[in-house]
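Amino acid chain:
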Amino acid sequence: MKIILAIAAFLASLPGQAYGARALQENVRVALLKGAESIRIDGDGVLAADEGGEPLRLELPVQARRGRDGVVIGGRTVRKLVLAAPGAVQVNGKRYRGTVEVLPQEKGLLVVDELPIEEYLVGLINCEISSLWPMEAIKAQAVVARTYAVYQKKVRGGALYHLESSVLDQVYDGCDIEDSRAARGVKETAGEILTYAGEPIQAFYHSNCGGRTEVAENVWGVRLPYLRSVECDYCAVNPSARWEQTLTLKKLESLLRGGGVSVPGLRDIREGRRNESGRLADLVLVSARGMVTVPAVTFRKIVGYTVIKSTNFQVKVADDSATFTGRGYGHGVGLCQWGAKQRAADGFSYREILSYYYPGTVLEKIGGGVQDAR
């Protein structure tokens, strides 16, 4: 057991937000956990303070839980718990750089990690792709992830956090899977983001487009000029380029009911319209009460993103089961990660990769400065 005496001055000295010439020190706030009943805190040299900056004396490891009036830790209740360490703070067995805040919510605890954006990206690379991929693909991923984070921070500036740590935004599991190749990809693109008309873009990306990327309006109903549908034959080598799933109609009926779509006595699923990228726009569900048309993106969300891997599929119903045969993995908008991997292997630079998947965008440094596109 270790006795830790937190020093509030140390917490106050941690890096804060910065812009312009200090743009690379800009911080982001990432929600690690939401609604947690309790968390386990550990680490070397961990410093803790309450909402007023008063040091807390803790024996580590220690549990923090949601109490009636705040966060209960070490026998006392605080309105906010702030944690930092020279290396990393450990939360539920995972290590995180920067400052970790634990806040009480209506249901459970909210755990937020605030850290420099460049450090966040090094930890993110091996969550989103693999640092064993060609370096130009790693650099492309670093730029789009940085751009996505900068955009979300701008949109959610006044919120408790800027990013989720899951597929709802970008997957981030802390610093345990950092490595030198991930760090190199981030360092060699330090501060670079994609812009359109002088503003950071919504840099959506996905695993595998299945041969052609999708336009944003077919997924979210909003047209963005830099998110066009482009041909992509480079992702065919991906194991998930083609997939198949079979589910019983009873299982589908139950899932749909849970998602707010009532189809009692589901007996058939028919393909509806397809959009210009070849993906299904909607499906017709035939039940004992008639037919219901459901957007394909809604159907995929309800049934499960890992089950129906994309909306580019065909469906056949037989023997009270539906078999879905499809191509690609993800919403299909923006960068195709497996396409970028193969393009990099074929000699394309990260700048060329980015300009292909985000036509009309400009590569700039945070705080201004157009980069050489060669």
